[in-house]
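I'd like us to work through together how a protein chain folds, taking it slowly. We need material for that, and I hope you will provide a protein of your own picking. Go ahead whenever you are ready, and we will take it from there:
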Amino acid sequence: MPALFELESTLVERDIGQDIHTRLSPSDKEKRTLIIIGIYILVILILWKMPILNYILYPFKLLTVGLHEWSHAAVGCCTGAKIEGIELDPDEGGVTRMRGGIQCCTLPAGALLVFCGFNVVASKVASIVLGVLLIILLFWARNWWPSRVITIFFILVIVVLWVVKDGEGVVYFVLFVGVMSCLYSLWDIMDDLVFRKVNESDASKFAKLSGCCPAQFWGITVGEITRYRIQFDSTKHPSSTAWPPSNLVVKITNETSILYRGAFLSGPYSISASCIETVHANRLNLLTTDNFFTPNLNPSIKCGEVWQVELAVPSNGIGDWTIDIMCEILFSLNKVKYNVSIFACVPEGATIDDELQIFDGEAIASQDGTTTVYSPSIQYEFLKPYDIFKLPDLTTFSTRDIHLVVLTHGIHGSMLDELYLKEALENKCIDRKTDSIVFFMSDVNHSYTEDGIEACGERLAKELLKYIKWPSNLNKDNIHNENDSRDNIDSDDSDESDFKDKPLISKISLIGHSLGGLINTFLAGYLHSVTNGAFFNHIQPIHFITIATPWLGSTDLSWYIKIGLQLGVVGQTGKDLALIARSREEQEKARGAVQEDTGEEQPLLLALAQPTSPSHIAVSKFHNRTLYANTANDLVVSFRTSSLYFHDYDEEISFKYTINDHLRHVLVSLSPLDITNDYLSKCMGSSPILYDKVINPEDIPPPNEEMDITIEEQIAREWHKDMSWRKVFVQLEGEAHTHVIVRRKWVNAAGWQVIEHLLNEHSLAPIQIFQDEATEERAENARLSSFVGAIAVGDLVKSTLGPKGMDKILQSASKGDIIVTNDGATILKSIALDNAAAKVLVNISKVQDDEVGDGTTTVCVLAAELLREAEKLVNQKIHPQTVIDGYRIASAAAYKALEESAVDNGANPEAFRKDLINIARTTLSSKVLSQDKGYFANLAVDAVLRLKGSTNLEHIQIIKKVGGFILDKKIGVNQPKRIEKAKILVANTPMDTDKIKIFGARVRVDATGKLAELERAERDKMKEKVEKIKAHGINCFVNRQLIYNWPEQLFADSGIMSIEHADFDGIERLALVTGGEIASTFDHPELVKLGYCDLIEEVIIGEDKLIKFSGVAAGEACTIVLRGATNQLLDEAERSLHDALSVLTQTVKETRTVLGGGCSEMLMSKAVEEKAKTTAGKKAIAVESFAKALRQIPTILADNAGYDSADLVARLRAAHYEGKSTYGLDMANNTIGDMREIGITESYKLKRQVLLSASEAAEMILRVDDIIRCAPRKRGQ
């Protein structure tokens, strides 16, 4: 029997096993069904987000959403709910609006029809049910008419499939709907837990109802850290058999249900924790210490797991530890609940258990938590995430010299990723005295990084502007429409007027890891664009640093990753990284940080790189641009894209990784390595820095003309066009992408040395070489400021140029005095300028005035036009040095043409005098004396020729008299008013000695008689001096100093005319005119040279008495008396005559002349254009621009006269190309004519100086790349 039973038992077991095998093996029909299901899933996933093709699924999406919502409604009706309507959205799911009902029944009912797709046997019955439901759905659907059309369509499809081939088509139709329904259920949960787009999922609502959902769980969520500082003092606890303890035990429990360990996409629900002595916890790393230790660390405490660590109590019974607990959730805002307990290990022989609980704490998100202390020996400090990441209030700072450092995390990252970098930077800047460092870390993008680079960058920018209280009045103007949300920047509306004039910070640096680098790029462009350039004009950009950033996208990753990115697996961000061209709507959204719409669809990363985009311009403004790139082991961002393509690193680097590498990466992420002594020692070994070099634009090789440029190379070339990049390449073992930023202090210790390099090479407290209040503008800012300032000066005075130029009124702000003039030198000397380049141009014009005396307006206008043309070339990305080289070539050609056109009549006095008169007439044509330019031209020529080649205009005196001279003094009392055949002694001697003037001496007398004797002696001494003067045989004495009454009477008694207090310039001119010399001693009359003239007489001009010397013997000086109606008119007449005299004196020295009226400028322009034809490269463009600037002079002459400049200049240019090289503008007749016949002549020296000075000024300003404004000198310094 036992044997038989055993046999039967064996048979039964065998039969059961075969039955089980048979049941588990699918039939051919089931295999076919499973294959069809797999095909359905693949097709649906491919078409789900595919552009254009996704419309194929649109009806099925709508059908599935409709059936799902109908299930809710149907069960709602059965449980007494009132259905208000159904809203259908094929992309985001639908919503069934109802009141009442039993939610625990209605919520899961939406998935009831999922099963119909897999019950193949009942497919026909299911199709009937579907048809009925579709008919009912027509009355509940509230959406637009396409919903109803599609519903009717599917009803007809079911009818047709039921009829064809005995209803076989119904099977596949129902199966497809079932698969779609399953996928929608998964999508609904992911939408809530991961993407959180629009509608809340049924699972989330049901979890709320049941109270067991982790979505609202207590604990810490993504990007958060809680910190406990535990201070233990055993002496504060009552003595007992269990005290003092030998050790403490810390237990950290992840209280999330173990069921959530597999919920990776909504988690992972794990935490990392460390427990370290506070003295060690505050250290950045172990690189600079000999006191090596291994931290107590668990990088991954999974759901339901307890981590226990034993802490040794120091011998003195006092200990201090810091416990950090960090959330490792990546994909959602769910929370992890945890508990921290501390126990005292009681000694042997105690009457209680082995452990005595002395502390218990559990965290509640964003609250203080629940903490229980069971022993007075424990003191603790609890820091919530808010406390650790809290931003300081900038308005409380005593200074605005604040350096804001923006730290930006990457995709699926959080502020916690930059915590080590932040604390390292804080430690580095702890002793900073001169300004404050503030670290800006915002959580506006965590769990939203899939929204796209532009969305993340815009959110971060608005948060930053709000934080620094950006004054809206600094925006020069709005560059977008009022309805654009970009204009509605959040800002602080506080009433503190102190914050309205300038921002609260003075410097800014941007540091981004991975995608954070691209977000910062968009951020910089947005800040530049939305403030219309004001942001970086008021806030100095310092460092722009990217760490493992995909500058060129992620197109060189494995094919399965690229397909996922293109399909939108990681949202719009994935499409941006896959370099998918943006639609016109997406370009419109991102226009704040990219170039203007070109009409072409292009990827966002390419648009950001364009030289005209605000992002490119903003990044170029930073003083330093550095990128860190992993050469190996970075499976997320390849070396080629993080290194920005171009470099001269020789080592061969692999860009491709296999699926095994990515699986290994996932496994390591789920189970981090243990932190051991060996691991930390290796991290502190040899430096991972392999390459550190600055790549300049000239280092970039030219493109290969035989091959098409890839979009990645195009992006890289755009970023290297006009800026230098410091490139640092590192090699790290393990997970390099997270190591390089030290995402977790101990787990990613391999990156310590990289962060150390960043800290040492990029000081946030740069060496201060300027005093306080000194400022600096660099690179494009400085050049733009120079262009604007210099061009503004030219535009200011160009309307005064030429015979028809306009006048300007200059009014003194303090005295109210006015000057009416069109003299360029006077205008520029009278105005206060703040722009550095404008002051340079003013100084150049002053040199022109000093050298030649005229042409200051012309030199300013020509220099401004040269710079205007140069600005256009620089904006076309032609280097300033190339422009300078071209201008030098053009200037030399123009100078040669001007020299060849010059005429020299210096050997022919008659012809030369005619040239001088024409020059004077031309000069005076643009002045107030133009109506009488013939008379004043002859007067000026006569005066200059009297100087006999001298250029000292002080020998020509100009005296102005209102309403109607020579020596502006009176003849003494009782002296002759008229003397003929005068012999003149010009002197500079004291004639006022009527009392003793010995400084520091005293004379004491004891009687009045002795005082009378002193006065008598003084008078006798003066009489003796007068007698010596009379011994010269003169009849006129002119003294520089005063002549008192006693000597004046002596001269009158002798019939000698005495003139006192003549100015120094006056007596010098008088000596020259009369042929005398100025005497100071009179003991040797034979050595003194007297002056002579035919007549000296006192004349009255207007109401003033003046002394006129006439009949001088061809002296080298003269006086011109001007009379006019007003002081302003006289001043302008003097300036006009002075300009003519100045030009004439220079022409007498350099006798060559050229033609005016724009003739010389057009002649030089033609020569420069000819030179451009033989000039190679981009320099030819600069040469042509020089010619254009020269043609602007006749253009402005015509414009100022109100003539048609386009017509006149075109005719003049044609005349010169026809060989009429003497033609210019006839301003009197609004035509062109022969300047030689008309008599429009100018000094060759003047025209040459204008050309050279304008060219030098333009070259000088073009070379500027830095403007430093020195601090004002303090009182007492």
